[in-house]
């Protein structure tokens, strides 16, 4: 070393060909130090070697400053392979380093001796021992021959010659390959030789493979390397193991390698060669040598014994790992006459066709990237600030960089399920003699890449950390990821592949990095040996959408096709991702995509909610509402409509729903809808009791056994509901977790309180009280329903009363019967009204219908033709009457008729009689004169029938005989004939001959008379004689009547019948003409004479008889024609001819009146047809005149309708005002009492579901887990993990959870059983992206909010509206989005906040269409919204403040604080801008500084002053609101119509919020008048609303008068009637007082205070009717009005109907009483009400929780049988044995058949069961026909009293008593035990449940049969619906 320059460095002491081949530098480090005080310049560094094994090297150095050191690193000295591979022996060499200056002066020089080793010489153990792998040469030709030889052995052993390496994944297959190579080398007969003494110290000559096969000699290391070359040649991973003085081989039995080339820990071998592990096989290679005759197994055993004695072990070299480090085999050296040269395998030409390179698809210019609504939600939750690691990645302790070169292969491997071990950087990197730069220069590759690829193949990935730092880093990552997963339920651990380098601006110097692709991974510690591995989680890889959104918003880059990630066959197409990103940023200077890989934790503020949407999309889609929000339309069909408010009392019984806080109908409708599981939007305008309704909804859901999740973004909204729940006793059952930073201790405390609340005793008669309340309200409802029920005629009794009053003074002569009213309809009523008017007009026109000359005319259609025709017919009719009358008189006299005139019937009969007389033949006089002739018709019929039989028999006999046969004794002859026929032959022949002879004697032809006809002829003789006798008998009476026609008894029977018929007809015709018997006898006599000789009679009367029938016919025809023409009746009465003559003359004389009469008839007929006959009859009777008719009709009608309605409604018929008032008071008391009972019942019901804390609970049960957590304070247990562990118990303890959207995402797993109900409050301020996660966690959802109030504020968030996808963007809130999909809606309508109606009137009219139910105040005639004009200006250009207004506001505040009365009212200030807000705050602060007392007054107030602007005032309210407009004319008087947020879209919402904050009064301070706002200059709805509001503030209700009148004007006759009567008493009365739909019917003005009402009168009219429930109309309305200061009087219309005068007197008394008393203040303030109704759980009666002891199994001990054992089989013992079996069954059933048999045998002293005994008992049991079930091998017997279907108990053994085996217990009984245990422990792992069950039944340990029996019991419990089984856990199903 020279004096001028110090040269230092690290040098190799040896060099050889293997080092040159593997790039081991000779000089690994060279430093030059200038120790002098001056700089050295223009230096040359040169390196030379001798002998010339390397080329000379030089380096120029411009300058080395004084005292400085220059590090040249590794010197790239080029070793000459030509020299090194020809060297056959070691030679000594020298390395010279010289440094000279520019003049050639040597400034420093170093000479370093070194050894140059021979080509085949290894450097030894002391220097780079791993270089030994270079001497393992698998590519030597001779090695291939050995492999082929081994292939034959392999085929012989396995049947396959193939070396498959590790493809079979079988260690045995690898050993077979090793053994085959071992055997092939043995066959080479290589002779072993000993190692030289130089081994280990200075290196070793290695006998190369070709030399070994040539010389057939080799030592242990030669044979080891040769064997390793063969192993590597077939694809196996060999090892070289070094011991002191020895070397042998090993091989991996699985495709693996060590992480480092050198392993010096022997345990890495001993553990992997241990029995049962067998990952590595060791082989003693000296056994290969000739003469050893050692097989492979023995060589293995010998090597294993060597490694077991580990004291000589030095290290091993992993050949595969060295290849990964770039150590390659030495090339083969060939020897020639010219020396040595390297042998290389012939190579193909270098130049070949280039490989096809993939070209990424070019990005197309697009206007927009399609996104889904889910993606938009995700975007809105992203954090785009630089705080987010996803856009500004920073390498921290939470990140770990990996060495990865091929990202696509890594992702593919992970996607296929591969696991990768994470290791530190290789140890040889820090102290390696090899130079990677040289390697890279030679191979166009990096040694690191080779290592990375090698490690990747071994499923290992390196990091840049030292090995010692990897484990702590991975441990930290693993723990943080686990904590995040447990606490948040979201994985935040990702492998980030690829990073975008980007800059904020073109001039930014700091590069930012953002990951591109995020693979969700998990870190698992496999073992101490393998350390940590990473593997892909079961989640989808993600594109960094935060980056995409940042690029879109900040840089306008819309990059499509990356979300979702593009995929290829194996997984993610990373090349496509990187290419797309590169193309997207190609025009951005300095931006680039860098292929880096980091493991890290990636999260941001709203990451939990983002992950909830991103990673659990499918879980979210299970919610019908989320699906609908995603698709933008309803994805489900809502159930039936909401409960109709008017049906609430009828359809929902008080006991069916729980309403612990008083609710109006609109609230109750929402509560009932929620109870039915409906999902809907609940509109809650200001002051309508949203929180009260939500509380009731929650309470009712809990009452029904449901679980509820209440969501509120703001803690204030959540706190209101929480306080209300606490007040009604539900605090312990409601778990508040609003913050995602909730304290675990607080949560456990809440759960502990719920667990320890105990069982509250339920209300004993709750259902009876509920039924009582129901009956009371139905009774009250029935009255109003009956009063206002539309009757069939179209109006109610209530409406009938004033209608009647209007016609009360009219005549009462038009009356209607109840039957007339019963059929009356509205259409009929309208018709009646029209007809009555027409009837009155017609009555007047005709001159009065009473006694009209044409009164009989009924025709309604008049015409002149009718008149002329009728005149002609009347004339002819008069003549016909005269003609017929004369003829009728003559005929009547001749025919003996009593009169010549009569009724039409009489005259028609006379004409018919005349016609008969004129045409008839002669009729025997006797017949005509005989009275009652028709009655003898049957007698005549019998006579004619007998006569005809007689004549027929006679004719038949006389045809064959002479007349003597007619007198023949046929009786004797028949007797003789029959006797002869019965005799024997000769007497028979003789007797028959005698009879024949007598007959033949009379026969006309005797021969024809034979035996065959004798009987027949004798019968005919008999018939003849009988008929002759009957004819003779009948003829004695009738014969004389017929006179000559009788013909001595032998008449023509047809003539007799005709004569009889004619006589009867004559008598019938005469009957109508006579009325007495005398008249009849005279007529018969006269007619007998006349018809006895009709010719003489006709001659006597002449033409009168002939003309009479025709005359009547002509007369009837004329009457018919007249009747048809006139519509009149021509019956004429008893003197038809006379009456008709009078009518004919009267009509003829007044025919000119026909037209008017026809008109009257027309109207009358239509009226009569419509049912108005009574009205027409009153006219015709003269009771009413034409002028009185209509009023009389309406009076009668309304009176009848009122009476009919009251009579038809029992509730009205029995109504009494005083009694009804008492019912109302009783109903109010019952309601209040029932509210308290409901709270008690609700708490009792919830407490009953809480399991009693049990000291014996299993640790794995949910109750055990919670008890342990409470005891330990939740140590090592996050809230989320606790919830996941006790999901069922949590629902029992706290079925209501109150949370924010982010806490829901953090603590409630989407897989958690869904809540039955999710309720959102203030939904108008909640973005949809934050709400969907909570929505998806519920079965039904209620979205509560007001779309007319403020949307979600955006003051502190970037503008994230996606203009390109505006149609898919969220609307302003989840409420707006739900409205957009037409989700069902319900509205809260009653407004309670404002103490004066004017405070809400503007908002109600302007924004709510006047649909809010607001209540007037007693001082309703004045407004509590006042306009205070201020002189001043708006400082538009500078401060943007209005100081004049601010000072006026502060002055008012100070005035109120100074007034003892006014300071009781709380104050709020609302401004239009934050600038005005700040000014007022500053001025007030200054004022307080001047007067601290006032500040103290404010601070002591229950509600201190607030000063807020439009953006943040929602949710606040005060008694008095001071409104500062701020904006106005500037100093020049100019008004700029820019009102800040009011001008924005939806600005009117802000105004609506601002103007609805006051309870008692609002004062508007403004320098701006409404007239100064020119609406023609703006289209803003907010500005238009401001002008309208200022108008209202200035003018009061006059500004709203038009719309209010048009919307609410209602004319009611009854109230107007009562008002008139009260005015007659001298009072001023106003009707329909109020601005909204609710009105006070009548209000009496206070004469002393004209702006105030003295008394309000509530009628039972439309306002009373329109109240939807009994509570609304009888309690709520009056309660609100009385709180507002009203004195009220109830006027019942039924009382007025009964006694109008009495009711007027009562009203007068009420007015006088009100006037005499001091004006009332509100009866009950809200604060007083809250205090009164606060619920105190401590006063509740608790039930003692008695631990239920399981029943004990009782054994049946039978009495010993009477008789010896031998009698057991006798039939006579059947009954006794059967009784014994029955006794056992009654006591022990269900019982196993085997136990039953044992009991039966015991009664007989038998102890052993035999097949015969079993058959005997089985036969008897079958006869009993018991219920049998089977489980497994056992059969169980049951009794009918305890059937298996309903059996739900179990029995445990008595201490020390008989114990059944578990398989002897039926599954039904075990199911009861399972249920018993789970009632106390909620859920258990199935294994633990089995253990608990067998312990319960007295067993100490389990077994297979026990487990199977319990599992059968669990299955049975599951079948019965008592438990559910999943994920190895048995859970008790809730029993509601």
Q: How far is the first residue's CA from the last residue's CA?
A: 97 Å
Q: Unreliable runs, pLDDT <50, ≥5 residues?
A: 197-201, 346-351, 434-445, 1354-1370, 1602-1611, 1719-1735
Shape: extended
Main-sheet strand order equals: 20-22-21-25-24-23-27
Count of alpha/pi helices:
70
Total strand count, please?
A: 51
Biggest sheet layout? 7 strands, mixed, barrel
The mean pLDDT is 84
Strand content: 5-15%
Radius of gyration: 61 Å
Helicity level: 40-55%
Instruction: Return the structural class.
Output: alpha/beta
What do you see in this structure?
- The protein is α/β, with parallel strands linked by helices and 1936 residues long.
- The strands form 13 sheets. It has a seven-stranded mixed beta barrel, surrounded by four helices. Strands 30-32-29-33-34-28-35 form a seven-stranded parallel sheet, sandwiched between helices.
- The longest helix has 32 residues, at 1217-1248.
- The protein is extended and about 195 Å long.
State the main characteristics.
extended, alpha/beta, 1936 residues, 70 helices, 7-stranded parallel sheet
